[in-house]
Amino acid sequence: MATIRDVAKAAGVSVATVSRVINKNEYVNKETEQKVIVAMQELHYEPSSLARGLAGKKMNTIALMIPDISNPFFPGLARGVEDVAQQYDFNVFLCNSDDLAYKEKSYLEILRKKSIDGLIIISNNVNEEELEPLRMANIPVVLLDRPFNEQNYSVVRSNNRNGAIMAVEHLLAIGCKKIAHIAGPEKFVTARERRLGYEGIVSQYSWYTPSLIEHANFDIEGGKQAVTKLVANNTDIDGIFAGNDLMALGALKQLIKLGKNVPDDIALCGFDGISLTELTQPEITTIQQPIYEMGAAAALTLIKKLKGEITETKIQELDVKLIIRGSTEKGKKLPLAT
Amino acid sequence: MATIRDVAKAAGVSVATVSRVINKNEYVNKETEQKVIVAMQELHYEPSSLARGLAGKKMNTIALMIPDISNPFFPGLARGVEDVAQQYDFNVFLCNSDDLAYKEKSYLEILRKKSIDGLIIISNNVNEEELEPLRMANIPVVLLDRPFNEQNYSVVRSNNRNGAIMAVEHLLAIGCKKIAHIAGPEKFVTARERRLGYEGIVSQYSWYTPSLIEHANFDIEGGKQAVTKLVANNTDIDGIFAGNDLMALGALKQLIKLGKNVPDDIALCGFDGISLTELTQPEITTIQQPIYEMGAAAALTLIKKLKGEITETKIQELDVKLIIRGSTEKGKKLPLAT
């Protein structure tokens, strides 16, 4: 069955624009509207009944628990969850846990009491015991992005270690001789996997020392602080692999402030593929996770469980992709060799 | 009573850091932790019982309905709502409506059926009739940011028209001779108020023509598209007031792509005060709304209504502030006149 995402892709517009056409909202120009309508016809796309009114519909609701609403990666996952949920007439409640265990526990309790239909959870803190009351209440749970080590739950994640390897190999390929890593907090499995990917490559080189890893929070401020320390401790680094894109944004800002040219003095690669990495000068090379697809896959898995279409648990590990941009295009302004 | 925000301010750290100290999470260095503890003692701050465990607590839940989770302005409002809610032992469900009327209606119905305690809503579509079922169910509602014209609800908003006037007067003061406006969709009262503020000033000038206003969506892509049209239609514009910061980010990106120097060819001012405006080169001048405080005020009003401490409706209009940055600092690199 075609999804709203397929229509958007076929018409070369955003999902929001397709939504606007379906709902006859403002500010879709005629030409775009026509493209969307043609794409809907070609793909035999039927907007869900929810999209066209609520008459007689059962109100289903799933929850998505995210650790940090201010990191665009998580709203990106939510976008995928929400579009699939809409397709199947589900509402989505977002629960922003701030990665705090007590907030997560509180949400789990309230979701159970409010008889939510299902839950997609992104968490480092929650374990099987804490999810047991939901299992008892017959509320299915899918683990997204940061699964705990557990066989009884379906998991959707991306290949974090592979992505880190791609980042470091790219920095080596463009000629970097000493590559540092801004690592996220060790309690996050995603941060650990990316750090391990980095170490797996660089530990083979004589220039490697553990002081090339700087831990920080997965945010802009974390990236800034880590760069300050890295540059002070390692005067000769010429490449940085940041553990996520927010860190990379902070790192770029701080490198410019320190008078470094990016990429010629220090090349920079992030991780996630959030669109903010395209707004900076230079734009930031990154390892793109299939963010929307991860959210969509988690929602589809949950809804199929709810409908009884699948009963087994499964792990879906999605591939990541290197997106090369200005922050690693060393010497791009030099004339081509003739 | 001191709030977690007061503690953060006194300690010179973020609210998240104070949360980490309270909850003994990782990655707070000793020095920072000490600062936070001292600030908590000086302010006689008591973390809410929720912050220290859930034993015996009633589970209260409010909902916050936002139109666009991908615009950091709304997560910023959510931050203020959530911190106050936590202080009073309330959970917050976020409902991302994508500004679609049918999603909002669906959420209103589900929130009523799930017996949510109260609702803060940011919407252009919802009217008094649609909120009537919540009123009948004794679920109080506070309107945030984009109120409809209604006396029966408490409202928290900022002074949008004044902010627009400040933006245009600033652009005039730095010597702009022809100022364009990228306006948000007319259906948003915030967009209309900002456009009216702009027109109120510029309509006095002989250079003003209506082609200096370009409407677009309140997002990065909208800013890019509008700039392309404005520059094509008005070759001599030297200042742009963008209706929100996402548009300003897109506008800056596009201006650079078109080979324009910002601010020397075209100066640029946004509206909202989201932190992304500090990440670009140049950083973007903006009209800063008190985003966190707006969210906090809405939550406090709702919770006081729930506790029966206030019964009347009131309108809280918060002031905005001009934040001058590189995108309007024309000729900054020139030597000072002697």
Automatic annotation (TrEMBL), chains A, B:
It comes from the Bacteria. One of its GO terms (molecular function) is transcription cis-regulatory region binding. Keywords: DNA-binding, Repressor, Transcription, Transcription regulation. SUPFAM superfamilies: lambda repressor-like DNA-binding domains (SSF47413), Periplasmic binding protein-like I (SSF53822). CDD domains: HTH_LacI (cd01392), PBP1_LacI_sugar_binding-like (cd06267). SMART domains: HTH_LACI. Residues 2-56 form the HTH lacI-type domain. Gene3D superfamilies: 3.40.50.2300, lambda repressor-like DNA-binding domains. The keyword DNA-binding applies. InterPro entries: HTH_LacI (IPR000843), Lambda_DNA-bd_dom_sf (IPR010982), Peripla_BP/Lac1_sug-bd_dom (IPR001761), Peripla_BP_I (IPR028082). Pfam families: LacI (PF00356), Peripla_BP_1 (PF00532). This is Catabolite control protein A. It comes from Exobacillus caeni. The lineage of its organism: Bacteria, Bacillati, Bacillota, Bacilli, Bacillales.
